Amino acid sequence: MRDLITVILAAGAGTRMRSNTAKVMHKICGQTLLDYVIDAAKKAGSDEIIAVIGHQADQMRESVKDIAFVLQKEQLGTGHAVMQARPLLEGKAGTVLVLYGDTPLITAQTLKKAYEAHLDNKNQVTVITARVHDPTGYGRIVRDQDGMISSIVEHKDATEEQRAIDEINSGMYFFEVPALLKALDRLDNANSQGEYYLTDTIEMILSDNGSAGAFLIDDCTEILGINDRLQLSEAEKIMRDRIIHEHMKNGVSFILPETSVIGPKVEIGRDTVIYPGTLLEGNTRIGEQCHIGPYTRISNSAVGNDVHIMNSVVLDSQIGYMTKVGPFAYLRPGSKIGNNVKIGDFVEVKKSEIGDNTKVSHLTYIGDARVGKNVNMGCGVVVVNYDGTNKHQTVVGDHAFVGCNVNLVSPVEVKPFAYIAAGSTITDEVPEYALAIARNRQTIISDWVKKKGLDKR
Ligand code: UD1
Ligand code: CA
Question: Which of 1, 38, 129, 193 has the highest CB neighbour count under 10 A?
Answer without folding.
Answer: 129
